[in-house]
Structures are given as structure tokens and as C-alpha cells.
Amino acid sequence: MTLAEVEPARGTSARRWSWGVLGRGRGLVGTVLVLLVVAAGLLAPWLAPYGPQQQIPGANLLGPSGTHWLGTDEVNRDIFSRVLHGIRVDLVIVFLAVPLGAALGVLIGLVTTMYAVADVVAQRVFDVLLAFPVLILGIGVTAAMGPGVRTIVVVIVLAEIPVFGRLVRTSLLTVRALPYVESSRVMGAGTWWLLRKHLLPNSLEPLTVQLGVSMSVAVFIESALSFLGLGVRPPEPSLGSLIKDGIRNVYESPVFVLGPLVVVAMLVLGFLLVSQAIAQARRA
């Protein structure tokens, strides 16, 4: 008998989901919502009628119209154009910070779980990171680095490392105790062979679900930090800073805040629906 023969057939070692779940039900709705926002952000230079910093003469806090779909702000800038360009900033942050935090967390979880002392040290560091609420962590990082996109990326990465590190650790400890993994170990399989062939592949499904959840959380983190003035620096637009500006001018222009709020809701709901669809497929 060889090591390959002790590996269970596909579908018996773990429940597997198919990307087909994204083509129906809540998976389809979530995918459409995310793709709509992503398309709007990518096409912003062509869809936006004005530049994000362009000041339009005589257009001070105008209401929605055929010329300005979401009106204008207090310094005569087109809100619709700023929302489109703000989406681009948020997408860069989300699709950079979350995968980076996930990759670092998974790497740390994989390596430290194999060694008892390293595992203890890593878990205590994770405890320290998880002890700080994200906003408090953001304030601390901002005090050290100053506000900006880089600060938001660092905060999200630090927040996601312990989440993914502990998730992969839990999966590895569960899979490592399964009979076919023990059989491979008895037959002489090394640690890294087991990681590559058994442990990591069987941990990918919960990690994918968490990735969708973390992306929705990252949208909230950016919005919250920028709303508090700790994130993207003006005049560069982001969804959080636009919500802040809209709240400040809510009495003069009530529609101002609706544009960025709707986009944030679409992104958060879309990512959550996708992760729920994947999780539901795993349980089926």
C-alpha cells in the first residue's frame, strides 16, 4: 500500500462545495451585488461625469437632478462622481488587506501548529491582538503611522491575522486526528507532505467562507475609520469619508449620504450572502 492509497476518495474525506452555488439563490444575489459595485468602481473614470476633485461653478449643495444624480457637496463637487471613485479606493483596500491578512494568518497557523512551543507563543500573540477592539487598534496604529490608506490596510491585516490563524489551527487539529492522516503518518509521511496533501486542502473550505465574512467586515472597518477621520485623507474620496461628509450636511442635502450608504450596504450584504451560500453548500 502506498501513501496515495490511504487518501480517501474525493467527497469522502470532507464535504466539498462547488462554485455552482454562486449561480443560484443567495449566492447569485450576493455575487451580483458585489460584481455591480466592482464594475462601478472599475469603470469610474468612464462613468463619472466629473472628476472626483472637480469643483463646479455655482453648484453648491444642489439636490439630485439629471445633471447631478446625487447632488453636489459643500465645495461644489459632484457626489455621484466621488462615490464612484470612492468605490475604487475601498476595493483596493478590501482586496489587498483581507487576502494579505488571510495569507499571513494561514501561514502562521500552519507553521506554528506543527511545533508546540511556537503554537503557544502564536496563540498568546493572537490573544493580545483580539483583546483590542478594531477601532481602538485603529487609533493606536493611526497614532504611530498617521491617517491614510496604508493605516487602514495595516489595521485590517492585524485584525484578520488571528482570525485566520486560529481558524486554520482548528481545522488542522481536527483533520490531523482523522484515521487516514494517522495512516499516512505511520507509513512514513513527513510533516510537510501531510500539510500539502491532507491538512491544507481540507482546511480550504472554512477559510473560503471566512474570507467572504472578512471582506464584509473590512468594508465596515474602512468606513468607520474614515468616518472618524483616521482613514483616507481628504480630499481623496472613500465611502467612509463620504458618509461623514453626508452626515455633516444632512439638513442641507439629505440625499448626500444615501449614495455611499447604499454602496456600503450592497458590498457588505453581497459578501455575506456569498459566504452564507458557500457555508450552506458545505453543510449540504
UniProtKB/TrEMBL annotation:
Membrane topology designation: Multi-pass membrane protein
GO cellular component: plasma membrane
SUPFAM superfamilies: MetI-like
Subcellular location: Cell membrane
Pfam families assigned to the protein according to its UniProt record, in alphabetical order: BPD_transp_1 (PF00528), OppC_N (PF12911)
Record-annotated ABC transmembrane type-1 domain positions: 87-273
Alphabetic keyword roster: Cell membrane, Membrane, Transmembrane, Transmembrane helix, Transport
Protein name, per record: Unannotated protein
